[in-house]
Amino acid sequence: MSQNSELSMSRIDARIPLTVRETIGRAAALQGRTRTDFLIEAALEKAERVIAEQTLIRLTLRDQELLAKALTAD
Fold first, then answer.
1. Nearest CA to 10 among 40, 55, 34, 53?
2. N or C: which end of the chain has fewer CB within 10 A?
């Protein structure tokens, strides 16, 4: 990959309890990954889930029918 096409990188620093670091390290090791890779994937997965939950509108069947009726009414 050329330098021009590489992704821009940024650093995040966090202070966490030693027990949390050890737990993350253990989970990462079980998957054969680094803590950094493990944390990036976990954080991104959680962020995408939160964004989806906050942007999707979930309607009951009855509410869907009411919405459809309202949208098609003259």
1. 40
2. C
